[in-house]
Design goal:
2 copies of one chain form a homodimer.
Chain A lengths: L1 E5 H12 L13 E7 L2 E7 L3 E8 L1 E4 L1 E6 H10 L4 E7 L2 E6 L2 E6 L18 E4 H11 L14 E7 L2 E7 L3 E6 L11 E5 H11 L5 E6 L3 E8 L2 E8 L18 E6 H15 L5 E7 L4 E8 L3 E8 L1 E3 L3 E6 H11 L3 E6 L6 E5 L4 E6 L6
Antiparallel strand pairs in A: 1-5, 1-7, 2-3, 2-6, 3-4, 4-17, 7-8, 8-9, 10-15, 11-12, 11-14, 12-13, 13-26, 15-16, 16-17, 18-22, 18-24, 19-20, 19-23, 20-21, 24-25, 25-26
């Protein structure tokens, strides 16, 4: 293998890939990045047996070939090189790197040992708008569980219904649902739970990629292909096993109280009250006062102090006081994004729903905490 | 106590003070900030019995008084308040905070329990230029020891000699000396070792303060007073006990080799080689080749790889190869700051010296590592 490529491009892609590389791989070669030199381009792949990433960059290739290199060492050296051409030459598994006044030698592992990434080439791809994917991930990712014992809940569920894509997440205490606007090109069956960790990487790739993402999926894998400024990029991921909860039946159809309120104002107030709530149990009380058309927020932490806030709100239905976790409320408010948001309530112990008034279609359901 | 002050000013000062507040104080009141309301101003003080900080901000004071409040809780709440006036009212040790639509209550501890900060009011202050203090700290702080068992070496030594201030630090393997340009107003005796932790805070205060710092010191304490945009600020600190090493006699008077080299180029090369050196023992080899008028840098990490760099240099004296710790070299190069730097060498096992060619007067001495 013998090639020359740009330091800045190589560096950018290696930092992206390095995030996937496991710290304690089950096999040494999984700590490596696979270099594949083809005419006019260099491929870089990493794979932790669950998530895989493959990117291509332009290169002047004198001798095609492939080899794997220690990903972190390679990435760290390249990141410090001057912004010039990098020449890469291999001799069996020995690699020489030359750039400016520096020469570096490393030992690689044969490309034969590197496991093959799934490509699902035989499956017909579906095209999804990158903006919709990105918005859906940002709108729901935070509500997934981080508890590894609840495997299926550590992912985001993707489904398609009536011509739109639905993405949802829940940790058992709250639920986030995002629905894309109806698009004709969503007329395909989709039912997959994708690990949060893979979607965090996908989100980073989406910010720099083309308008459309090509998605292939079978019962166990999903492959995202997108075009970036300098070549193609691919993320592959093993799906989470199991039946995702039938979350839609958890969302009440009717509510007997509706509150319209300024989202930013509510979020700031909740964040202040949360400082005190954090000293005790993270519980915030919300008293919707229909007579005063006002929301009163409060928290108490006996040995530390207490706090109260009030915000004008448009309240229909009877006055009510509910309590919930400050984190669930803050994160839902942050994700909702519209200027105004709607809170729909049935009773002190029944799930309530927060949603943006305009913009995207998202539903944030939160289980309240029973207070004496 | 009853007063009103600006949220943004209060917030800025509380974040500064919070850094001093101990996490596990020996006495509960040391986790608190002392509020002192005097006509037209509010004083805020924290003290961990070694380092103390006191700042003043303008305030509309209706009832003077003083009380201590939990520093972190107070600071965290204030940081989230809107940028409006904050009203503070006390009733015995209970405090009410009102700002915008929010009201907060906290329990304080009587001001009587708060230990008094040293002020050394009877000692004649000396005036030091804030720029010189700041430059001296930045030029030497990194070389102090972080090993608490070498108490005296965890500080920066201040001394005055022939009309200039000298600041120095050493961890036993390297030495940094900064000398201010001769100034007439440095004609005073100075001999104090100040803990690095206090100087880090002082450095932050200096960036926002007046041109001159008033310094008072006795055998056990030092007090820095400076004027900021909105009031005065004070840092007090207990000096480190013990005799500081007679470091000046460690610096050779004569060298038989002198190397002039581009500082930025050398620093970049060392940082690249350091990536490989870090895999083994952090040792970098420097071969000064007088015939080639070139410095060759290299490192080897047997199971990982090796690297070589070369840089043109102006070398007088015979060729020589020395080795040293990459970190000592990198940090000295970073602190030197001039475009070109000078390296002075005697032999493979003798200390060598790095210094900036222009700008400030600084000396960085490094003990080489003996190689086979």
């Amino acid at each position: 293998m013998k090639l020359t490529c740009s330091q800045s491009l190589l560096n950018a892609k290696l930092s992206l890939l390095s995030r996937i590389v496991p710290n304690n791989p089950s096999h040494p070669v999984l700590a490596n990045v696979l270099l594949t030199a083809e005419p006019d381009r260099l491929g870089l792949s990493v794979f932790d047996l669950s998530i895989g990433m493959q990117v291509w960059i332009p290169a002047v290739v004198d001798e095609p070939g492939s080899l794997t290199l220690p990903a972190r060492l390679f990435s760290e050296i390249v990141s410090k090189l001057p912004n010039k051409d990098v020449a890469i030459t291999t001799d069996d598994v020995a690699v020489s790197l030359a750039c400016g006044s520096g020469k570096y030698q490393m030992q690689g592992i044969s490309a034969d040992e590197f496991p093959e990434l799934p490509d699902l080439a035989k499956i017909e791809p579906i095209q999804i708008d990158a903006g919709i994917l990105s918005e859906g991930i940002q709108s729901t990712l935070f509500a997934a569980s981080s508890d590894e014992s609840k495997q299926i809940l550590t992912g985001l569920h993707f489904s398609s219904s009536t011509g739109s894509i639905e993405m949802s997440s829940t940790d058992g205490h709250r639920l986030a649902i995002f629905q894309s606007a109806d698009t004709e090109d969503c007329d395909f069956p989709l039912d997959a739970t994708i690990p949060v960790r893979a979607l965090r990487e996908l989100e980073k790739m989406l910010t720099r990629s083309s308008a459309t993402v090509s998605v292939r999926s079978d019962r166990s894998q999903v492959v995202f292909d997108m075009a970036s400024e300098h070549g193609t990029e691919r993320l592959t991921c093993r799906l989470l096993d199991g039946q995702y909860p039938a979350y839609n039946q958890l969302v009440p159809k009717d509510f007997n109280r509706t509150i319209a309120i300024d989202r930013q104002e509510l979020m700031s107030s909740v964040e202040r009250i949360a400082v005190l709530a954090a000293r005790k149990n993270n519980i915030i009380r919300l008293r919707f006062d229909a007579d005063a058309q006002c929301l009163f927020l409060s928290a108490e932490a006996p040995e530390f102090g207490s706090g109260q806030e009030s915000i004008a709100a448009n309240i229909t239905g009877e006055s009510i006081e509910i309590a919930c976790n400050t984190k669930y409320l803050t994160e839902a408010l942050k994700a909702a994004q519209s200027n105004e948001c709607l809170i729909q309530v049935n009773g002190e112990t029944m799930p309530f729903v927060l949603s943006p008034v305009s913009g995207k279609k998202a539903t944030y359901l939160i289980m309240p905490i029973q207070i004496r």
